[in-house]
Design goal:
alpha/beta
Length: 138
């Protein structure tokens, strides 16, 4: 079974999926958010099509480690995702993943317009790869 990584934002959800062995994360797509039920259904379709067994959701913490309103919102989203899809949902600290993705794209000389299109997917890859690396060292 594969593992899906999500970078959940207000307008878009970046999606990454692991290889079958759970060693590497590959960027999959960016889901433009419309409504909660539609988002959950589309993620369910992707999980079925890609044989996903676990979902890892990027969890935003404040820089001091506390949980703010966005963190609570993400936990509620994760709970709904778990209930709807019947898959385990885990959380991964996403502090600075979008910043790291932005820096990587700037260094690669990717245009601002193109960066906006792929940054959420790259952040999802960073979230999932961090999770996979941690699992490998357990």
């Amino acid at each position: 079974m594969r593992i899906m990584g999500l970078d959940v934002g207000e307008k878009r959800i970046g999606i990454a999926i692991s290889d079958q062995l759970g060693w590497t994360a590959q960027g999959h797509s960016v889901l433009a958010r419309r409504n909660l039920q539609g988002d959950l259904e589309r993620l369910g379709e992707l999980c079925s099509a890609n044989e996903v067994g676990t979902i890892v959701v990027g969890f935003p913490r404040n820089m001091n480690g506390t949980i703010g309103p966005k963190g609570i919102e993400i936990m509620e989203f994760g709970q709904l995702l778990q209930e709807q899809l019947g898959l385990p949902v885990e959380y991964w600290d996403e502090r600075l993943t979008t910043v790291a993705a932005e820096r990587m794209l700037v260094e690669a000389n990717v245009s601002r317009r193109r960066r906006k299109q792929v940054i959420d997917k790259i952040a999802a890859v960073n979230i999932l790869q961090g999770y996979l690396d941690r699992q490998a060292h357990k």
